[in-house]
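Final report, section 2: Outcomes. Of the targets proposed, Flagellar protein FliO/FliZ is the one most frequently requested by collaborating groups, and we therefore present its record in full.
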Amino acid sequence: MLLTAVSRADSYVQFMTVLILFVFVLAITYLVTRWIAGYQKGKAGCGNLEIIETCRITPNKYIQIVRAGTKYLVIAVGKDEVHMLSELSESQLDLQKNTEGQIADFASILDKVKMLKEKDKG
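The predicted structure is given below as tokens.
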């Protein structure tokens, strides 16, 4: 009887240890991912180059509008090559920020889901 009580307590301690280690690994993974994302975001913001819009033609080919300094270029991007198609003036572009076609961050998507669930309940 005493032996089974010790083994139950031992298995409980093992479970709690594994649970704590799992949460610790998740926390470290989250922090490292955030750090790497911030590092890459800082590297990507060069200032003189910006991808304005991308349109997928085939799985490996895209047409992009790129701002290089003060010029706007239309380029074709393939798997192993990049070709300039045209140069555009700023007046030829519609540079309004359209957030419907863009990918939103996770927090805003989660808020929308919560609002929809609250509407369904109420």
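The CA atoms of residues 58 and 100 lie 23 Å apart.
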